[in-house]
Amino acid sequence: MAEAARERRDVVTGEVMPEERLIRFVAGPDGTVVPDLARKLPGRGIWVAADRASVETAARKGLFARSAKARLTAPKDLADQVDRLLLRRVLDGLGLAKRAGDLISGFEKVSSALNSGKAAWLIEASDGAPDGRRKIMAVARKSPRQARMMAAYSAEELGLALGGENVIHTAFLAGRGADRWTFEVLRLSGFRPLLPESWREEP
Predict the structure, then answer these.
(1) Which pLDDT score is estimated for 199?
(2) What is the biggest distance separating any 2 CA atoms in the chain, rounded to whole angstroms?
(3) In this structure, are strands 103-105 and 46-49 parallel, antiparallel, or unpaired?
(4) What is the pTM of this model?
């Protein structure tokens, strides 16, 4: 029997929700609020919904200190800190997936994974050529399994994470690894768009 997801209370709205939809914060040694994305740091956790507006509200209204019943200082750029940490965490997750054999790259291999319905995610370089992107997205639209899509990283960033010079098209194969990674990506989506704004204007 599957273990039930743990739930926590968001200090901004009071809503109880699964941990995966929240960011855990703790008090640092100097009384500063510290993000704990891996949920492993010692101390009592303070939980906030995983979106920029909620973190900014918690910092602005002093909700971290109120929840901890202690003097805590929330940095003005706390939401930006979470954004950067999540961005790195999601990219690192791709590197782990590559080593585990859950990730494939290259137009032909990604197209094959999409056509067979094996791809859970289509990951595109944000600076890839529009023509190649249109072609792979056309393949994705015909896939028997609708793959989610993100393009938060450049070809160089993907290449560094995945051990290639330039990586344009990548697919995360469906499975438990993709499910775990999806939680991280959904948290990231609360802080930044997963696709560049300019793509919406493309034909």
Answers:
(1) 77
(2) 56
(3) unpaired
(4) 0.91
Residue 8's nearest CA partner among 82, 59, 67, 78 is 67
Rounded Cα–Cα distance for residues 123 and 21 (Å): 22
Q: Which of 127, 124, 153, 156 is nearest to 138 (CA)?
A: 124
**How far apart are alpha carbons 121 and 182 in whole angstroms?**
9
Render 18-61 in DSSP notation, one character per residue. EGGGEEEEEE-TTSBEEE-TTS-SSS--EEEESSHHHHHHHHHT
* Mean pLDDT score of the chain: 93
| CA 84 – CA 162 distance, rounded (Å) | 19
- How far is it, in rounded angstroms, from Cα 100 to Cα 79? 31
Total residues found in the chain within this entry: 203
Q: Sign (positive/negative) of CA torsion 184, 186, 189, 191? A: negative
Average pLDDT (40-57) is: 96
| pLDDT class of 2 with cuts at 50, 70, 90 | very low
Q: How confident is the model at residue 140 (pLDDT cuts 50, 70, 90)?
A: very high
Tell me whether strands 148-150 and 103-105 are parallel, antiparallel or unpaired.
Answer: unpaired
The mean per-residue pLDDT over the stretch 131-152 comes to 95
- Report the pLDDT value the prediction gives residue 82, as an integer from 0 to 100: 98
Show the tokens assigned to 162. 């995945």
